[in-house]
Design a protein that fits this description.
The chain is an alpha/beta fold. Helix content is about 25%, strand content about 35%. Helix 3 links the parallel strand 5 (about 100-105) and strand 6. Bound molecules: inosinic acid. Inosinic acid binds near residues 49 and 80.
Length: about 190
């Protein structure tokens, strides 16, 4: 029998264990493979939070697809600044492509809202969003991703690619960060 996962000392509780994350990603990949059958979607990973989600997802997608990356900055610590900056742009043309944006989490929706608007100006055939996590309570704009791994409450979570000040991305599960870990790292 597999040993129970021991959380990192800064983690208050494991919200979604690794097994459940992987199982759900397989389901999403099946759904995407069905919906995009006969097409060659362009997966657009939003760095850096997408890294683990995207790498698990593409292994399970049974389609020809391409992968490109974009890097956006909108967060400082646990707060959305509301101002989105593009730090790295796509290398490939989006013209006529079926773009599927791969996000770690949609929270206020400001980042994905900005990105959708930006991508739409590049002449794609379609643009959809696939997010591992969705915090619908926090939404500031009316945006709903087509593919959602898990809907979660309004807690600050880390792991499986998600960070707090660049830490905890390597945790293999989604965990809620202890308030003390947030407080002790403010300004670091
Ligand atoms: P939004 O613009 O508020 O929707 O935030 C999107 C980005 O904020 C995500 O791509 C994450 O990088 C970051 N973010 C939002 N909530 C969390 C969280 O709970 N943990 C870690 N990062 C988060």
């Amino acid at each position: 029998m597999a040993e129970a996962q021991k959380p990192h000392p800064d983690i208050e509780r494991i919200l979604i264990p690794e097994e459940d994350v992987r199982r759900r990603i397989q389901e999403l990949a099946r759904e995407i493979s069905r919906d995009y059958a006969g097409r060659t979607p362009m997966l657009v990973g939003v760095l850096k939070g997408c890294i683990l989600f995207l790498s698990e997802l593409i292994k399970e997608i049974e389609l020809d697809c391409s992968v490109d990356f974009i890097c956006l900055a909108s967060y400082t610590g646990t707060n959305s600044s509301g101002v989105v900056r593009m730090l790295l742009d796509l290398r490939d043309s989006a013209q006529g492509r079926d773009m599927l944006v791969i996000e770690d989490i949609v929270d206020t929706g400001l980042t994905i809202g900005y990105l959708m608007q930006n991508l739409q100006t590049r002449g794609p055939r379609t643009v959809e969003v696939c997010t591992l996590l969705d915090k619908p309570e926090c939404r500031k704009i009316g945006i709903q991703p087509k593919y959602v791994g898990f809907r979660i409450p309004n807690d600050f979570v880390v792991g499986f690619g998600l960070d707090y000040n660049e830490r905890y991305r390597n945790l293999p599960y989604i965990g809620v960060l202890k308030p003390s870990a947030i407080a002790s790292r403010k300004g670091s």
